[in-house]
């Protein structure tokens, strides 16, 4: 996906659309290599669905972490510009995901972009939080994780707490964008 994102920017520029994402995949990536939400959107696109229908139809994976792990190139090409990195991640993520999965992609891209020029972890996390809705579930759990760490919880204690909330042996818990972002933080 990172190579595809570079191809996309080279061929569509920074103004690419969400529909350009899956349309480009069907022309450059064999469908067998797409998983979960990406696979469903790929199939839906081949069936003629576009926009919200393409990402929503028969897609139980809409809030998985796929978008946040496939969109990082946007941050690499926009160092020190978390807003631009996040905005491009938003357009890409909207091709396959919704809600907190989209916010996860935005959050991670903003942090990567900020981290290119900043070594203060809290400033990097704040850059990510600045790019997602203040009242979304993801923001709530990121702030909760940061507060618990600030209150003295160790990484191991936080990890155990996250594991208690989200069972990593249950596919729909552990591939969900929210606990993944909590672990990243």
Report the mean per-residue pLDDT as an integer: 95
What is the helix fraction of residues, given as a range?
55-70%
Instruction: Tell me the number of strands.
Output: 0
Rg result: 16 Å
Number of helices: 13
Distance between the termini: 23 Å
Give the uncertain stretches in residue-range form. none
Shape: globular
The sequence of SSEs as H and E is HHHHHHHHHHHHH
Largest sheet geometry: none
The class by helix and strand makeup works out as mainly alpha
In percent, how much strand structure appears in the residues? under 5%
Could you explain how this protein is built, in words?
- The chain is an all-alpha fold and 185 residues long.
- The protein starts with a helix and ends with a helix.
Give a quick set of tags describing it:
13 helices, globular, 66% helix, 185 residues, mainly alpha
Kindly summarize this structure in a few lines.
With 185 residues, the chain is mainly alpha-helical. The protein is built from 13 helices and no strands. Helix 7 runs antiparallel to helix 8 (99-115).
Topology:
Blueprint: H1 2-12, H2 18-28, H3 36-46, H4 51-56, H5 66-70, H6 73-76, H7 82-93, H8 99-115, H9 121-129, H10 137-150, H11 155-165, H12 171-174, H13 177-184
């Amino acid at each position: 996906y990172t190579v595809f994102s570079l191809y996309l920017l080279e061929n569509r520029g920074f103004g690419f659309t969400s529909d350009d994402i899956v349309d480009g995949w069907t022309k450059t990536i064999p469908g067998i290599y797409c998983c979960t939400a990406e696979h469903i959107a790929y199939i839906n696109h081949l069936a003629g669905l576009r926009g919200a229908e393409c990402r929503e139809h028969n897609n139980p994976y809409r809030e998985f972490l796929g978008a946040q792990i496939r969109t990082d190139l946007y941050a690499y090409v926009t160092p020190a510009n978390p807003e631009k990195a996040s905005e491009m991640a938003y357009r890409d993520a909207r091709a396959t995901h919704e809600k907190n999965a989209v916010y996860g992609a935005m959050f991670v891209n903003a942090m990567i972009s900020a981290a290119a020029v900043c070594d203060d972890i809290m400033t990097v996390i704040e850059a990510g939080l600045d790019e997602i809705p203040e009242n979304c579930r993801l923001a709530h759990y990121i702030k909760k994780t940061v507060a618990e760490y600030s209150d003295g919880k160790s990484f191991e204690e936080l990890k155990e707490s996250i594991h208690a909330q989200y069972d990593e042996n249950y596919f729909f818990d552990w591939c969900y964008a929210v606990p993944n972002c909590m672990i990243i933080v």
